[in-house]
Design brief:
Structural class: mainly beta
Helix content: under 10%
Shape: elongated
Strand order of the largest sheet: 1-3-4-5-6-7-8-11-12-16-17-18-19-20
Number of helices: 4
Oligomer: single chain
Number of strands: 20
Distance between the termini: 71 Å
Radius of gyration: 24 Å
């Protein structure tokens, strides 16, 4: 039998998959916190206040006024994630199962992540005694994952990739001996590629990987936003920093391609369209206190405005547009505590712990976002080779708590082969991070 999916059917499939797309970018696990190697070594405790090096541009550009000299920094950060997704009773109801929900062929999917390098660059320089300018190149959001072809939740996701590159020119001014302000423009490029399998509704007993079809989506966008911060020395030993980063909304434009399953003829068709990808507003509140010449205590609270992403609407050039897909993200937060110890003139040691709350909710969490609450443990060190050259090193481990998957994915709605897949499972994970940076003062 040859079956051609109608335009309304294609729009519906595109809506389902694009609706899952922001999970790729907006879960906390896909915000790449690791934009500073020295900060990573203390689990980012006090990062908005300490202004230890040029990476302060990302967490609070007002901190540039506290740097000792013009500085260039280049960093390489290696993320090594691992995720385990287990099936706890997923079923499919198709014409081939006579409409009865039956278990279908599928495995655990394996670890979907490969080790991923994340580079960043910073440059900061004074204009005069009170003003500084700087530039940062970072990748604050991004991930690439892929499950095995027989993954039990392949009808939710099979391949996902996202890259967000951020260019940040910044200025900072020291108002007086205690107060500095700073801000910058964020120019961002985002691109995403998403894939998921389509079940064959004609297979007796339930769909199989061999007869699956596939939906693929690719899109990209340029957009811009801003950030602003203030740094205050409360006394000779205590410093407070506050920084706001605007959540940029990207309108991803690209192509959605559907290859029908074998039992429906295997035909392919494409359509161009767009969908908004909303990145969260973020607020960093940092505190540092020097207890002695050697010891400094650090704390930081970070707030994420994930709730601005409650749904996503897809627009196809050929229409009709599908109904918006609910995401129901909640605002989240992270709390970090850490310390630094000045060992001698060359070495500084640091460590920290952070708790990071997931924005995902039961009933909406998906396998593009196998996310849970995170607990971080970090350690790091700085080495001063001389007055100009320095190095940063850091290691972090964080555990991703176990969470449930409970999703219903429906396909070919309004046709004689209308089908539904009920995904039931659990997810847990962990990440190891290794990082190093080179600093050069002019």
């Amino acid at each position: 039998m040859t079956y051609r999916l109608t335009r309304p059917g294609l729009a519906w499939v595109a809506g389902l998959t694009l609706g899952a797309a922001p999970g790729l970018a907006l879960a906390a696990g896909f915000y790449i916190h690791a934009q500073s190697v020295s900060g990573l070594g203390r689990a980012f405790a006090g990062e908005a206040a300490l202004a230890a090096d040029a990476s302060t541009l990302f967490f609070n550009p007002a901190g540039m006024t506290r740097l000792e000299a013009p500085e260039f920094q280049a960093a390489a950060i290696l993320l090594m994630p691992r995720s385990t997704v287990r099936d706890t009773g997923s079923t499919a109801a198709t014409p081939g199962t006579l409409g009865n929900p039956l278990p279908y062929e599928g495995g655990g999917g394996g670890n979907p992540y490969d080790p991923t390098p994340v580079p960043n660059l910073y440059y900061a320089r004074p204009i005069n005694e009170r003003a500084w300018y700087g530039f940062g190149l970072t990748t604050p959001f991004g991930l690439a994952n892929g499950y095995d072809d027989d993954f039990f939740a392949r009808y939710d996701s099979s391949r996902s990739s996202l890259r967000v590159v951020d260019l940040q020119p910044s200025l900072a001014v020291q108002i007086n001996d205690r107060v500095s302000v700073g801000g910058g423009i964020n120019v961002q490029y985002a691109d995403a590629t998403l894939r998921n399998a389509l079940p064959d509704p004609t297979v007796p007993g339930g769909p199989t990987p061999a007869t699956d079809g596939e939906f693929a989506l690719a899109g990209d966008s340029w957009d811009y936003g801003f950030n602003v911060g203030v740094l205050v020395d409360l006394d000779e030993a205590t410093r407070l920093g506050l920084h706001y980063r605007q959540g940029i909304t990207h309108t991803l434009k690209g192509t959605a391609t559907t290859r029908m399953p074998v039992g429906l003829g295997g035909a392919s068709e494409s359509d161009r369209g767009q969908a908004d990808l909303k990145l969260p507003d973020m607020v960093f509140l940092g505190l540092s206190h020097r207890f002695s010449e050697r010891w400094t205590g650090l704390a930081q609270y970070t707030w994420f405005n994930w709730s601005n992403f409650d749904e996503i609407a897809v627009k196809l050039d050929a229409g009709p547009d599908p109904d918006p897909v609910q995401q129901n993200y909640r605002n989240s937060w992270a709390l970090a505590l850490g310390a630094e110890y000045l060992l001698n003139d060359r070495w500084t040691l640091r460590g920290g712990i952070q708790y990071d709350r997931t924005p995902t909710r039961d009933g909406f969490r998906n396998t593009r976002t196998p996310d849970g609450d995170r607990t971080w443990l970090s350690a790091g060190a700085s080495y001063e080779r001389g007055p100009r050259l320095g190095f940063e090193f850091a290691y972090t481990y964080f555990h991703v708590g176990s969470e449930s998957l409970d999703l219903t994915r429906t396909f070919y709605a309004g046709t004689p082969v209308a089908s539904a897949v009920e995904l039931e499972g659990t997810t847990t994970g962990s990440v190891h991070i290794l990082a190093a940076a080179l600093r050069y003062r002019f």
